[in-house]
Every structure is written in C-alpha cells, then in structure tokens.
Specification:
about 120 residues, mainly alpha
C-alpha cells in the first residue's frame, strides 16, 4: 500500500526536532522530554537521533529561518510548551528559551501567552 500523505518535509521535521531539542536542553533534558523527542523522530521516520540533535548548535534564529509560516511557528510553540511541561516542570530557562524563539518569530507577548495557555492544557 502506498502512503498518499507524505507528511511534513524532512527539513521541517528536522527544524522541529532541533528546535525542541534546543528548548529541552537549556536545563538538561529530562527523561520524559528525551522520550518525546525520540517518539517524534521515530513517528516521522526521521533518520536523526538525539545524538545528531546534540551535535549541531541550533538556536532561535535558525528555528525562525526554517519555520517560515505563522502556522508552523504557532504549532512549534504549542509543541515546545507541551513538551517542556510534560515532565511536570516549566523552568525559568525553558521559559526564557521559548521567549527568545517567540521574539525571533516576531510574536508579541499576548500571542505567546495565548499559545502557552493552549499548550498547557495538552497531555503528552
């Protein structure tokens, strides 16, 4: 059977994975965050591993360049907030990293706050 839905392009998957890794790694990656990242890579059939994600510096500017549309940027922010809150903690470092990404995306505080609240209700 041929899959008619190709899903997201590999470069977008890589941007999500590297961006999520960036946020999770600001204060050491918790086991739950690592599991979620591995699941993302496996479910998207990405050839990347956590070691690959750790081997390349990737920051807010890189994420903003890779995720050009407001739709992808909003999905990323929701995913990142849900991931870092999945371990029951949302650290100051994680919040700052997400704020840097939101700034790189050109989001205002109200828009970021709305996305953060939406994502906080997601159970991963």
């Amino acid at each position: 059977m041929v899959n008619a839905d190709p899903g997201l392009p590999p470069d977008i998957i890589e941007a999500f994975a590297r961006g999520l890794y960036f946020v999770a790694s600001v204060d050491d990656i918790e086991p739950r965050e690592a599991d979620l990242l591995r699941n993302l890579l496996r479910e998207t059939e990405s050839p990347l591993t956590l070691d690959d994600l750790a081997s390349k510096d990737y920051g807010p500017g890189d994420i903003a360049i890779a995720l050009e549309t407001s739709f992808l940027r909003r999905v990323f922010i929701r995913a990142a907030v849900a991931m870092v809150k999945a371990d029951g903690r949302f650290t100051d470092g994680e919040r700052r990293a997400l704020g840097q990404i939101a700034d790189a995306f050109g989001m205002n505080n109200a828009e970021f706050g709305d996305l953060e609240q939406e994502a906080a209700r997601v159970q991963l």
